[in-house]
Write a structure and sequence with these properties.
By secondary structure, the chain is of the alpha+beta class. The chain is built from 2 helices and 7 strands; from the N terminus they run E-H-E-E-H-E-E-E-E.
Length: 77
């Protein structure tokens, strides 16, 4: 199992702040595909995925126990 966290507009899109899913030994790219099927449009959000508090590459492998966050673009002023 991994724990997924959704922030800002992505939280609005999913309707939940977090969830646990059985998604291990697959890549970040595989997670994007899964998330876009479950939450259509999530991939269009320009979000980045972080695994264990570090931005991840599409080829990075997600392991059981990882904490994954969908982080939307941040701006400030």
């Amino acid at each position: 199992m991994i724990e997924l966290h959704y922030f800002a507009g992505i939280r609005v899109l999913t309707g939940i702040p977090k969830e646990s899913v059985n998604f291990s030994n697959q890549t970040v790219e595989d997670l994007w595909k899964w998330a876009d099927e479950k939450y259509p449009g999530i991939r269009n959000s320009s979000a980045r995925i972080a695994v264990n508090e570090e931005y991840a590459l599409p080829s990075d492998v997600i392991e059981s126990g990882d904490v994954v966050a969908f982080i939307p673009p941040v701006s400030g002023g």
